[in-house]
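Batch manifest line 536
LIGAND: dihydroflavine-adenine dinucleotide
JOB: complex structure
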Amino acid sequence: MKFSSPLIPLALVLIVLYSCPLWAAASPQKYQHFLQCLSEHSSNSYPISKVVYSPINSSYSSVLDFSIKNLRFSKPQTPKPLLIITPSHVSHIQAAVICSKSHGLQIRTRSGGHDFEGLSYVAYRPFIVVDLINLRSISVDDENNTAWVESGATLGELYYRIGEKSRTLAFPAGVCPTVGIGGHFSGGGYGLMLRKFGLAADNVIDAHLVDANGKVHDRESMGEDLFWAIRGGGGGSFGIVVAWKIKLVPVPATVTICSTQRNLEEDAIKLVHRWQYVANKLDENLYLGIILTGGKASTQGGITNPTATFFSLFLGRIDELLATLSTTFPELGLIKQDCVEATWVESTLIIATGVQPIESLEPLLNRTPPTIENTKIKSDYVKEPLPEAAIEGICQRLKAQDIETSQLIFVPYGGKMSQISESETPFSHRAGNLYKIGYVVGWKEQSLKAKKRHIHWIREVYEYMIPFVSKSPRAAYANYRDLDIGANNKYGQTSVEQASVWGLKYFGNNFKKLVYVKTKVDPYDFFRHEQSIPTL
Ligand code: FDA
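JOB STATUS: finished
ARTIFACT:
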């Protein structure tokens, strides 16, 4: 992607060398030795051989591909792991760490596989993937309002299990049900209840983690510094989190979801402009966000009409919501027909699929999203409202007809997000932020030309936004991973100074403490990738 031309042949050679089919054949002794090491370090009651996939295994490709959620990283030339391990017992994770370390291999940890830069399953040094798909048990304790959830579970599975036990308990995490718990919690994790309860990571109260020496810890034995770092400091830097204990939150038995779409060119520019003054000050029980959509997805009769979809989740009934909005945001003109009442768990499915009424909650258990395409994401934080002219500029860009799908997602802050201090967890974007913007571009066409065109589009919009968004540093959301904002080298190596280019954007002043914790718990930088926290 970023190689200049003289390097391409070398890169191709390296990729071929790393291509796994060769390992077992080229160094059978080393390979056998590694497998033996894995057996020796895992529990006899759970033979690890049953969950190890090498490229000569017929299931290798399907296991690898199943959790790839971005086609950009599913090409024949994409480097592939030497082995995939799908642990069914914590000792398999311990063995994977101990043996990879002693054999000079890197580990990529994968939970749901939604990393926007594919860092959970692609690396440029010989590596294995530890895929936690089999570690996904969830136990909900509705007497104490807590749950233990393993990292390989998805958000949909978590919501489903909470809904099975209670209609008045919930968890404030992301919108897409197929997202994995492991990566999502590690990077913060926001959903439509962030203004009332904060992020997923803000509601984690204990965790089990395998460290760089293969030791298992809980909160007490890992210590408060490491427990702080894993709640928002980004996945893949500190260890492999096996399970999380979370605090469930109370919600009313009935919540309200609304959605209304406006043509951006007709009246919506003024509405979007006005929204900036309103959304972060609304009642904490109300999330009112916007998705601006352009590209071919909004093209009719050869003309692209970018749209603004205002959508909300209100922890209460329709009538109360409409009464609130009629005084706080009458310009939106929201009416009863735009809304539907449901239980909270039903609302997660309605929001994810747009389908209602809900006949069954089973689709929450589906680990495969309806479409998988090539995607690229970027993010920004807005501290001062954008002028109308800036929104017009965005609208012009959304009209690009050679772009398949383009979206800007405006996520309102305020409420609980402003009450949590910047240093409480590594996620530093708290008071002073009106809203976050997520820029997303997606395409299915598999040519290099299409890739260049779409990536150029998102980079141009991002550049256009410079005057209007946070500065020094221009902040970004760690879970919207973007290697354009700075990265360690391909092998994950960097200096603290170089890493601070992206580290300060994601974590603000917390970056320094993350480096300190990393140096303490993983001094030899075993858990490493293109945006892992470096050691001093
Ligand atoms: P994946 O398995 O790819 O892991 C992501 C990173 O975490 C990698 O670096 C990986 O190595 C590391 N990691 C994974 N498991 C780990 C573990 N157990 N221990 C330590 N490190 C681990 N975000 C959001 O806040 N709100 C939202 O609503 C959405 N919605 C959304 C929709 C879609 C379609 C996508 C593709 C992404 C989102 N996201 C999001 C972003 C999402 O939160 C982010 O990509 C997460 O890191 C994904 O977690 P996974 O486990 O699925 O990814």
